[in-house]
Amino acid sequence: MHLSKIIREEGPTELYRGLAPSLVGVVPYTATNYFAYDSLRKAYRSFSRKEKIGNIETLLIGSLAGALSSTATFPLEVARKHMQVAAVSGRVVYKNMLDALVRILEHEGILGWYKGLGPSCLKLVPAAGISFMCYEACKKILVENINQED
């Protein structure tokens, strides 16, 4: 009922309003997260001279990758949230994501880009570690199954 009302009154494009700012935050986070994980994993292998990395090491490497990628992309998250708050209050404050980033920097300084990073990391860092640990476990199971079939 609500879906048809939105389409009828505001048009189908209204269903996707706000998608671009969300993607601008998610895509860089995901890319930096996997890049950081892969780089840290290779560095750990080189440093420890181990071919196989255990679950605890994977958890720690994944958590560190999550912390790095979260810190690197957090300004995008802050800008997105500022834009959402402005939209909910019914006023257009920012033209786009870049405008939001510049205006936050002007009004609050560089620390404005990182307000809330600590609580966010409390959520994201363990989640990233657990995700990469599960990723490696699933990859290992799939590779073993493929090798058994050959």
From TrEMBL:
It is found in: Membrane. One of its GO terms (cellular component) is membrane. It holds the Pfam family Mito_carr. Solcar repeats lie at residues 1-43, 53-141. Its main location: membrane. GO terms for biological process: transmembrane transport. Keywords: Membrane, Repeat, Transmembrane, Transport. It is a multi-pass membrane protein. Transmembrane segments: none annotated. InterPro entries: MCP, MCP_dom_sf, MCP_transmembrane. Belongs to the mitochondrial carrier (TC 2.A.29) family. This is Mitochondrial carrier protein.
